[in-house]
Amino acid sequence: MKLLIIEDETALSEMMQGVLREAGFVVETATNCAEALEKIDMYEYDCILLDLMLPDGNGFTILHHLSEQGRASKVIITSAKGSVEDKVKGLDLGADDYLPKPFHLSELLARVRSLLRRGNKGAKEIEVGNVRLNPDDRSAIVAGKPLSLLHKEYHILYYFLTRPERVIDKQALAEAVWGDHADQSDNFNFVYQQVANLKRKLRDAGANIQIQAVYGFGYKLTEK
Ligand code: CA
Questions:
Q1: Could you tell me the distance, in angstroms and rounded to a whole number, from the CA of residue 181 to the centre of ligand 1?
Q2: pTM for the full model?
Q3: Among the CATH numbers 3.30.300.70, 3.30.1330.60, 3.40.50.2300, 3.40.50.1820, which is that of 2-120?
Q4: Ligand 1 midpoint to CA 113 (Å)
């Protein structure tokens, strides 16, 4: 699950990043509207944490943009403004929740989890061939038996299963699973290694799907 924190207070943003990364989320950040819009256009986020008062504008413009683009990202407004009007306006514009500042980090984490759980996107079981993923508890079942996966392997499999029969660019996969840091790395050894481990586990478990290499580009998940 990938999150975007839009927050101009560096110290607060860092604390939010800490608790969310520890909980297993891939976290990216933006400190102003322009940067946030750029990232939203380039990447998909499961959940966006949105501060309203930003140095170059108001967070409401980001909500407008998300609804214009028909994006499925869940949004939690985190704001010190706290007026009833702002809350109503934010929810009217498509935000899913409103968390007034100051908040406890444990409350933030609980809200994010609850939102992603009730999100129709996150909670649905994904099934391709004889492989099933349950995003609620991150469990995987292959041919009726539980398959034990490491954290990153689960994320990679989730990424593939939600894009069956499509050519997956290895850069896009790296960014989805590792976040911003993948941008800087021109070395995909991590991706190769994790995908190789995942392929081996799927094969050993008798999965009837396979991850094929697409030469010079990336991968494709197909049913056997
Ligand atoms: Ca602010």
A1: 25
A2: 0.59
A3: 3.40.50.2300
A4: 23
